[in-house]
């Protein structure tokens, strides 16, 4: 599931400290050009979409990421792959487009798996 621009910006704040719970006010401090209610709405949407969980502490609610940035990006890649009929061609093209350092890293991951 894709995130809108402001949703992604809010998630960047949350992802930067994944073990931290944030109040709307704390997140809003990162967005001085946006109203408190706008950030509250964005966090509510992110809760509905499953990107954050909301915990009620009396009158105060906090929010925490339910998955990592890496999980989100992996999901986007998997979604893109599911839209093609030739996954191998897409994967080959993607791998060839990677910088050499990333290609070496992927080779290292797969060689480690084969050694097991």
List the helices and strands and how they pair.
Elements: H1 5-15, H2 24-28, H3 36-49, E1 52-57, E2 60-65, H4 69-82, H5 87-97, H6 100-115
Antiparallel strand pairs: 1-2
Please tag this protein with its features.
116 residues; mainly alpha; Arc Repressor Mutant, subunit A; two-stranded antiparallel ribbon; 6 helices; 2 strands
Care to give the gist of this entry?
With 116 residues, this protein is mainly α.
Structure description:
A two-stranded antiparallel ribbon has the order 1-2. A hairpin with a 2-residue loop joins strand 1 (52-57) and strand 2. The protein folds into 2 domains: 5-65, Winged helix-like DNA-binding domain superfamily/Winged helix DNA-binding domain (Arc Repressor Mutant, subunit A, Orthogonal Bundle); 86-116. The chain is built from 6 helices and 2 strands. It has helices spanning 5-15, 24-28, 36-49, 69-82, 87-97, 100-115, and strands at residues 52-57, 60-65.
* Proportion in helices: 55-70%
Count, helices: 6
The termini sit apart by 34 Å
CATH topology of the largest domain: Arc Repressor Mutant, subunit A
- Strand content bin: 5-15%
Taking all residues together, what is the mean pLDDT?
Answer: 92
Spatial extent as radius of gyration: 18 Å
Shape: elongated
Tally of DSSP β-strands:
2
